[in-house]
Design goal:
The structure holds 2 protein chains of 2 kinds.
Chain A: H1 10-18, H2 25-39, H3 48-54, H4 59-70, H5 74-91, H6 97-103, H7 109-120, H8 124-132, H9 136-147, H10 157-161, H11 164-180, H12 200-210, H13 213-223, H14 232-262, H15 273-279, H16 285-299, H17 311-314, H18 317-328, H19 336-353, E1 361-365, E2 369-371, E3 379-386, E4 395-401, E5 409-413, E6 422-424, E7 429-431, E8 449-456, E9 459-464, E10 470-472, H20 479-493
Chain B: H1 28-37, E1 43-48, H2 54-62, E2 72-76, H3 82-93, H4 108-122, E3 126-130, H5 135-139, H6 142-156, E4 162-169, H7 177-180, E5 190-192, E6 196-197, H8 198-211, E7 215-216, H9 220-228, E8 234-235, H10 237-254, E9 262-263, H11 265-271, H12 274-287, H13 292-300, E10 312-313, H14 314-323, H15 330-342, E11 354-355, H16 360-367, H17 372-394, H18 400-406, H19 417-453, H20 461-501, H21 504-543, H22 545-589, H23 595-611, H24 619-631, E12 639-640, E13 647-653, E14 656-661, E15 665-670, E16 677-681, E17 686-692, E18 697-702, E19 706-711, E20 717-722, E21 728-734, E22 737-742, E23 746-751, E24 756-761, E25 768-772, E26 775-779, E27 785-788, E28 794-798, E29 806-812, E30 817-822, E31 827-831, E32 836-841, E33 848-853, E34 859-864, E35 869-873, E36 882-884, E37 893-898, E38 904-909, E39 914-918, H25 921-925, H26 928-931, H27 938-944
Parallel strand pairs in B: 1-4, 1-5, 2-3, 3-4, 7-9
Antiparallel strand pairs in B: 6-8, 10-11, 12-39, 13-14, 14-15, 15-16, 17-18, 18-19, 19-20, 21-22, 22-23, 23-24, 25-26, 26-27, 27-28, 29-30, 30-31, 31-32, 33-34, 34-35, 35-36, 37-38, 38-39
Helix pairs in contact in B: 1-2, 3-4, 4-6, 14-15, 19-22, 20-21, 20-22, 21-22, 22-23, 22-24, 23-24
Classes of the chains: A alpha+beta, B alpha+beta.
Chain lengths: 495, 958
């Protein structure tokens, strides 16, 4: 853990005031940041964006600046202030560990304990015990001494697995996921007194498993031990992960807009359709971002009409500010390790803001079987392939329901128990696992999930998640249906 | 590419690894197929012949298709135990260690945890690659693979991101059918790696050459390929690489410093015949070693008795040298192994401390150097160990014949004390037995003599005395003769000793000769004793003149009889040796690569077999001839494919074979000329038939219950009927009625003229039916057999084996025996009267699909889903059956039959192929010589037959 001297105690604070006039602009900035964090200590919702806007910086700009001044990311910077404040409160014996965790802005007691242990090398419980035993100020000093050696201490095995940035990313994203899927919190629970600590590898595993496969698989690659150094390979994987995530979000957005258009719920005269059509031919990164900006305007105030209610909060200014920064990142001239750090921030924001997806299920429904016993109402047997998974052999789940969903398509569902609540993502996201591929003509098509790539010369082009090249899926059984769906989608967008 | 000048772009005997992508060419199609199939299922099976480059295609080709973040290969060889190797290899790749419990109590859950942690260490899909998977079946035990498959089954059911790739030699595929029971999808996702085509082979020569800036003379590739595979379209990758490496090294020597290396046709010619390149390589390397003989002994330990390569630790090599009587010290073994590694014959030591040959093709060359004596020693060790464990279980000692069998080798065996004690005990018991027998004979002899003596008168005493004297002279002569024999024996002994001092290979022979000499000496000694006995008797005759003549005559005839007996015994034991040699040669021939030599050895083995009156049914010889026949190309067409779907049933009528198929065709093929074929097409898949010999007609049953009677003399339809819409399972005839059994349990009875007589429902789903005189025996899905009268009343039931479903039944009238085949592949022979199991015939590894007896009921033919047919000698059920398998088509067998004259037998497969086989080895061996272009050389004779047997030509000169 890399740390720099950050002034924090109240006495230091007063010194700062006295010397303010001599401080450089950078120091003023640091001071302001620190004050803002301290002022929002108890505010669990206080985000990186909030901090950036407090000093009138974009998130990326602030990230670069902070990295240049302290070598830390924004979240590392804020966490360190919170932890030091936590330590002060422990020493003053102002409350229980849980109370103090809450006071310094940690939503979870276990997470506070984990971060505290990582930062100081011992647990908050230990501080409390020693203070109770009367170590008092002596221990307080020894604790301060312990702090610095931690950076020279033996690296935990976790740090050998992944670069610190992936750890950071994993912890943050996981925290965010817990908000949408509280059952995940159990992975953060450890018995501190037994010397247990959170296995960050398991958190990473849960991220891969809970995000829809096209995002999960890219994140998995990023976590792989071979990509841990900030080099060209990691750079490419970061770019790919960001691009794939943006693409999935874009396809959710297009599907929502198309739904509204189909139900004639939008005023077509207010919509700039050109950018949507562009995204349905051969979209560039830029096109996708532009399209989402346009969609954000359309969806504003229509929260009750869309399937994914979280889209409104997702497509906010901070989101677009970050994406604009991302689009502006030059690829070659930059120092590769700096660029990687910037991209990690972007990815972290994207995953953070899309963490709500873990409360949805991405599924593939094949044919739906009707069962109609005599004198009874019909039921519908659905066979779901659940596309949130750790491996590409997706689990099959059977559900008999009173109503039916769409068949032969990839759906985003709120729950697989409710067949009426879904967003059909066909033909933008498709799944070939149900296809019989052993015939010679189709043997080159892989069993995979494919994302729409382009429409060229009358053909739909897709890219799978297991390969980088484009695939021609025109030999698929349902290709004609896909083409018809695509043409209808384009027609909606040409209104 | 200056830096590459001193590194060969060709791989010699190694397979290609991930780093070799720049020089790996010509396998694009296979790689694409693998890459596509690896995503289709968690399990992929990759198979192909030895030397086709399976490992290279995976380790280099497939590996390079993946990004580094998506490919985590774990290579697993069996080592000492496959699950232990799996655990070790996974631990090796892990970053965070996982504590595993003791090996004996490890469960699937432990492996799951270990793999799960490995995944969390790397976050990459794990590919478990089980290379040379056949080792599990060659060296492993049933318990081992059963435990292994249970773990794999459990791992497949978890949500771990783990894929399994099994790489196995094609000929061992059948063993995997056992796995299907636990993992039904085992064969579903498979890729067959073929040998390289000529076109791709050219690419694999020219592209690396270009990359390494090597100039190839015009026509170099064509000449090289012509040499490697003169008539074949496919190229053996190993041979190509070995050859290229050799030419390249030669070319580099010829090139001046810093000059471009040029590979020329002349260099190819200079290298000699390819078949010998490997043998030459081995010989060359051995010759360069300080102790060639010791090195050869060590090398032999790396070859299994089946002729494949095997992994050995330094300790197990040392044990082996002890066993075959060339004991070497650990330090010598270590030194030789390290030399062999340096000479590229052995691979580097693996993590389990094991070494192995670089390639199976080397194993074949070394296998040919294992002498028959060494094999015998290994066999005899095996025999003693088996007998000893039998003794521990049941207390049975070695018989006299057993002791004679092991005597020549006893002192080379270095057995442990328990086995030595066991042999000594057997000898003691045998000696006691013999002594008792001798005493008995002497007492009986004396009684007879005394009673005879009383009959002889005194008057002939003088003459008798003279005769007695003559007899004494005769006896003395015999004694001298015996002395002479002893002298000869002594001479032989001397000779043996002399030759022992000669070359080391010959020492082995000398020992043998000496033993034979000792045997002769013993025999001579025995005869001398006998003669001595006679002389004593003769002396007595002098005093007891009246009795002498009779006794002398008796003695003479007894002596003569014993000699005749001894000679006969000697001949018999020689014949036994020759028959055993014949079997050895037959087995050995099946491993040979050179097809001419393979044919010659198989044929010579068979000639010995005939010469020494071997039994008609000798599976080893049959299989050797059969393989030779297959390899040497067809003598005439022995298979035909007139059907394009499964052949449901086969039968013989006069000199024709009747076949019916799902392709709606009824085929009639001439039994000896398969191209003589006619067919009748029906509008339905035909599923059963009955030949009505009395009416020269054929009754057909099709799917959906369509019935047809066909006049065989003119091919016209006599009548057509339709029963309930059930597919036909079987048709039988009793008295004047045809019985049509449907697959759903419906039986319809029609008169011969086609009138419906009755419909009956038997009350369960029939699986197999046999007609036993006037009864029908029908099995259900649980292995129960119910008996029905001809009026279809159930009259009883029984269950011969309660575990499995019966899949086929057949009854033989004259011999009154019923054969039943089970889903598990087991066959029972049952006496229908007592319902007692007379014989169990295990061997098939998957369900029996059809059974057939020959005319006299001495042979039983079985076909199975394990892709083989087996011919059982019912009279000698303890003999192994003949196992036949069409290596090319690898098809499931659906139906089998004998021809009417029982000279041939036939199988029908799922792809519609009808194949014919000879029952007689005589017929099978005929014409082999026409297809072999030469005879054995003296060297070959000495290596593959024996040094002490006089050379003879196997095939007549042209």
């Amino acid at each position: 853990m890399n740390t720099r001297d950050i002034p924090n105690s109240p006495s230091e604070k007063s010194n700062l005031k006295a010397e303010e006039k001599d401080l450089s602009m950078d120091q003023v900035l640091l001071k302001k940041l620190q004050e803002t964090v301290m002022a929002n200590l108890g505010n669990e919702q206080f985000s990186v964006e909030d901090l950036a806007s407090a000093v009138a910086f974009s998130r990326s700009h602030l990230h670069r600046k902070l990295n240049q001044l302290t070598g830390q990311s924004i979240s590392q910077f804020t966490r360190e202030i919170r932890l030091k404040q936590g330590m002060d409160l422990l020493k003053k014996e102002t409350g229980t560990v849980s109370e103090i965790a809450f006071q310094v802005g940690f939503g979870s007691n276990t997470y506070f304990i984990k971060c505290f242990h990582e930062h100081f090398g011992f647990s908050p419980g230990e501080v409390k015990r020693k203070m109770a035993e009367g170590w008092g100020s002596h221990y307080a000093t020894s604790i301060e001494e312990v702090h610095e050696p931690k950076s020279d201490a033996k690296q935990s095995p976790l740090e050998t697995l992944n670069p610190a940035s992936s750890q950071q990313l994993i912890l943050e994203i996981f925290q965010e996921m817990v908000k949408y899927k509280p059952t995940l919190e159990k992975f953060l629970m450890v018995d501190e007194d037994e010397g247990e600590s959170v296995d960050i590898r398991l958190l990473a595993y849960q991220i891969i498993k809970n995000y829809p496969w096209p995002i999960g698989v890219e994140v998995r690659r990023l976590f792989s031990a071979v990509l841990k150094e900030p080099n060209q390979e990691r750079y490419h994987q970061l770019q790919k992960s960001i691009y794939r995530t943006i693409k999935v979000i874009s396809f959710l957005v297009i599907s929502e807009i198309a739904n509204l258009l189909h139900h004639k719920a939008l005023k077509t005269s207010d919509i700039k359709f050109k950018i949507f059509c562009k995204c349905l031919t051969k979209p560039s990164h830029h096109d996708l971002v532009e399209m989402m900006k346009e969609a954000a305007k359309i969806l504003k105030g229509k929260v009750e009409m869309v399937f994914i209610g979280e889209l409104n909060t997702l497509l906010d200014d901070a989101f677009f500010l970050e994406l604009d920064d991302w689009l502006a990142i030059p690829d070659k001239e930059h120092d590769i390790s700096d660029t990687c750090m910037l991209l990690e921030q972007t990815l972290m924001l994207l995953l953070n803001k899309t963490a709500f997806l873990v409360s949805y299920k991405m599924v593939n429904v094949g044919t739906i079987k009707v069962k109609k016993p005599k004198h009874k109402i019909a039921t519908f047997a659905h066979e779901f392939h659940i596309l949130n998974s750790i491996d590409s052999e997706f689990k099959i789940h059977e559900e008999i329901m009173d109503q039916f969903s769409d068949s032969n398509a990839v759906l985003l569902m709120k729950s697989i128990k409710d067949s009426t609540q879904f967003l059909n993502l066909s033909p933008l996201i498709i799944d070939t696992h149900r296809e019989e591929l052993s015939g010679t003509s189709k043997s080159r098509i892989k069993r995979d999930i494919f994302l729409f790539e382009a429409f060229q010369e009358g053909h739909l082009k897709y890219a799978g998640t297991s390969a980088t090249s484009q695939d021609d899926l025109s030999l698929l059984d349902g290709y004609e249906d896909l083409l018809a769906e695509y043409k209808y989608l384009l027609k909606l967008m040409q209104a | 590419m200056k830096g590459n000048l001193h590194k060969s772009p060709f791989k010699f005997l190694d397979s290609y690894s991930e780093e070799d992508s720049a020089i790996f060419y010509g396998r694009d199609q296979e790689i694409e197929e693998l890459y596509s199939k690896v995503f289709q299922s968690k399990l992929m099976l990759v198979y192909g012949a030895s030397g086709t480059g399976k490992s290279s295609v995976i380790n280099c080709g497939l590996a390079n298709k993946f990004d580094s973040a998506d490919w985590m290969p774990i290579h697993i060889r069996r080592g000492g135990n496959i699950l232990r190797s799996l655990a070790n290899q996974v631990s090796r790749a892990a970053i965070m260690p996982v504590d595993l419990p003791e090996e004996s109590i490890r469960t699937s859950e432990d492996f799951r945890k270990q793999l799960s942690s490995l995944y969390l260490d790397h976050f990459k899909p794990i590919h478990l690659i089980f290379d040379q998977f056949e080792e599990l079946f060659i060296f492993g035990f049933e318990q081992e693979w059963r435990a292994f498959i249970a773990v794999i089954r459990d791992l497949m059911d978890t949500d771990l991101d783990v894929r399994f790739i099994f790489v196995i030699r094609g000929e061992y595929l059948e063993f995997l059918s056992e796995f299907e029971e636990f993992i039904p999808e085992f064969f579903d996702n498979r890729v067959r790696i073929e040998k390289m085509t000529r076109k791709n082979a050219v690419e694999s020569i020219t592209k690396p050459a270009r990359l390494f800036n090597i100039q190839l003379e015009d026509g170099f590739e064509e000449n090289l390929l012509k040499k490697i595979s003169p008539e074949k379209t496919y190229v053996e990758l190993t041979f190509l690489q070995v050859f290229l490496d050799k030419v390249y090294r030669e070319a580099r020597l010829q090139a001046e410093a810093n000059q471009q290396v040029v590979m020329t046709k002349q260099q190819i010619d200079a290298i000699g015949q390819l078949g010998d390149v490997l043998a030459e390589f081995v010989d060359e390397q051995l010759f360069k070693m300080s102790d060639t003989k010791a090195a050869l002994t060590v090398l032999k330990s790396f070859v299994s008795l089946q002729g494949t390569k095997t992994q050995m630790t330094s300790y197990s090599v040392q044990q082996y040298t002890k066993e075959i009587g060339h004991s070497l010290s650990p330090s010598v073994v270590d030194q030789i192994i390290s030399e062999l590694v340096n000479k590229r014959i052995l691979k580097e030591q693996d993590e389990n401390g094991q070494f192995e040959l670089r390639h199976d093709s080397l194993a074949q060359k070394i296998y040919q150097k294992i002498t028959i004596q060494e094999r015998e020693i290994l066999d005899i060790r095996q025999f003693i160990n088996n007998s000893f464990s039998e003794y521990l279980k049941r207390g049975t000692l070695l018989t006299d014949e057993d002791l004679v069998y092991i005597a020549p080798f006893e002192r080379h065996l270095s057995l442990d004390q328990a086995c030595v004690d066991f042999i000594q005990l057997s000898k003691k018991k045998s000696a006691k037995r013999k002594k008792r027998q001798r005493i008995r004979i002497v007492i009986i002899g004396l009684i007879v003599l005394l009673s005879m003596t009383s009959l002889v008168g005194f008057f002939f005493s003088q003459e008798q005395k003279k005769r007695a004297e003559n007899m004494a002279i005769v006896a003395k002569q015999k004694s001298e003769e015996a002395e002479n024999q002893r002298g000869i024996a002594e001479e032989q002994k001397k000779q043996a000793k002399k030759s022992e001092e000669l070359a080391i290979e010959e020492a082995e022979n000398a020992r043998r000769e000496r033993f034979e000499a000792q045997l002769a000496q013993k025999e001579a000694q025995m005869q001398r004793d006998r003669a001595e006995f006679q002389r004593l008797l003769a002396d007595k005759q002098k005093q007891q003149a009246e009795a002498a003549q009779l006794r002398a005559e008796k003695s003479e005839s007894a002596a003569l009889a014993s000699k005749v007996l001894a000679d006969a015994e000697k001949e018999k034991s020689y014949a036994l040796r020759m028959l055993s040699l014949s079997r050895e040669m037959a087995i050995k021939s099946t491993h040979m690569m050179d097809k001419n030599l393979k044919g010659l050895v198989a044929l010579q083995a068979y000639q010995f077999h005939q010469q020494y009156s071997g039994q008609d049914f000798q599976p080893e010889n049959y299989q050797a001839l059969y393989q030779a026949d297959q390899v040497l190309g067809p003598s005439g067409s022995n298979s035909t494919r007139n059907h394009n779907k499964v052949i449901n049933q086969l039968g013989a009528y006069q000199n024709q074979i009747i076949s019916i198929s799902d392709d709606q065709k009824l085929g009639i093929t001439h039994a000896s000329n398969l191209s003589d074929y006619q067919e009748f097409v029906r509008p339905y898949p035909i599923t059963a038939f009955l030949i009505d010999e009395n009416e020269h007609s054929l009754v057909l049953g099709s799917s959906k219950g369509n019935l047809t009677k066909l006049d065989l003399s003119n091919g016209k339809i006599v009548w057509e009927r339709k029963m309930e819409s059930e597919d036909l399972l079987g048709i039988f005839s009793i008295n004047e009625a045809y019985f049509f059994f449907g697959t759903g349990g419906m039986v319809s009875q029609y008169s011969h003229s086609g009138e419906l007589l009755s419909h009956t429902i038997i009350g369960f789903i029939p699986k197999a039916i046999a007609q036993i005189n006037q009864q029908f025996w029908i099995s259900d899905g649980q292995g129960k057999i119910s008996m029905f009268s001809s009026s279809l009343d159930q009259i009883g039931s029984f269950k011969p084996d309660n575990s499995q479903a019966i899949t086929s039944m057949v009854f033989h009238n004259q011999s009154e025996q019923l054969a039943i085949g089970y889903q598990s592949g087991l066959i029972f022979l049952i006496d229908p009267l007592t319902k007692v199991i007379k014989e169990a015939l295990p061997g098939h590894s998957a369900a029996i699909t059809d059974l057939s007896f020959n005319n006299d009921g001495n042979y039983l033919l079985s076909g199975s889903f394990d892709r083989s047919i087996r011919l059982w000698n019912i009279k000698r059920p303890e003999k192994a059956p003949i196992v036949l398998r069409d290596s090319e088509s690898e098809q499931w067998i659906k139906s089998v039959t004998f021809s009417s004259d029982s000279k041939h037998f036939y199988s029908g497969s799922f792809d519609g192929t009808l194949s014919r086989y000879y029952l007689s080895m005589d017929e099978l061996s005929q014409g082999l010589c026409d297809r072999i272009s030469r005879n054995m050389t003296i060297d070959e004779w000495e290596t593959h037959v024996a040094e002490d047997i006089v050379y003879q030509k196997t095939c007549p000169d042209e």
